[in-house]
Amino acid sequence: MSSETQPLTCPRCGQPAAKLFPEDQDSTKITTQKETDRFIFVGEFTDAQVTFLEALWSAAGHISQATRKANVGRTTAYRWREENPDFARAWDEIDESFVDLAETALHQKLVEKDLGAICFKLKCKGKKRGYIERQEIEHGLNDQTRETLAEAVRLVSETRK
């Protein structure tokens, strides 16, 4: 078995998940293209933003890990996200790539008839068919509670006389 890891691919299109080309992007809006060893980012980015996006990918979308790896403050990363729509789109694409990966893994577990995956899927998508977890609360009174309540009512009525 090889020690090399296989590159992740997007289950929707089969492209390497690191290629951040939104399929519906208007090519006339592309102003710059930064290419690194693993990514192609379309739009306007600083080198620090590209470093952060690469770190975000390698951290599987975990923001705290990415900010540490890229030596960028968390508030700075969120400010870039707010101010730069290209950066926000690239960040979203990274997030979506990992959601796609998780869905693919879940699907594989469903095919393998993994009980945990089956329960998860039914709880999330089978609610209309009754696959929900709910707490049942009994509204009736047992005999002891009924007697205690009757005694309390009797005492209150006696004190009002």
Describe the overall structure:
It is built from six helices and three strands. The protein has 161 residues and is mainly α. The chain has a domain at 19-129. The chain is elongated. Residues 1-8 and 17-32 have low confidence and may be disordered.
Provide a compact summary of the structure.
The chain is mostly helical. 53% of the residues lie in helices and 5% in strands. Helix 1 (47-58) packs parallel to helix 4 and helix 3 (74-83) packs across helix 4.
Shape: elongated
Query: Element order, helices and strands?
Result: EEEHHHHHH
How many individual helices? 6
Distance between the termini: 88 Å
The average pLDDT value, as a whole number, equals: 77
Map the helices and strands.
Layout: E1 19-20, E2 33-35, E3 40-42, H1 47-58, H2 63-70, H3 74-83, H4 85-111, H5 115-125, H6 143-160
Parallel strand pairs: 1-3
Antiparallel strand pairs: 2-3
Helix pairs in contact: 1-2, 1-4, 3-4, 4-5
Record keyword descriptors for this entry.
three-stranded mixed sheet; 3 strands; disordered N terminus; 161 residues; 6 helices; single chain; 5% strand; mainly alpha
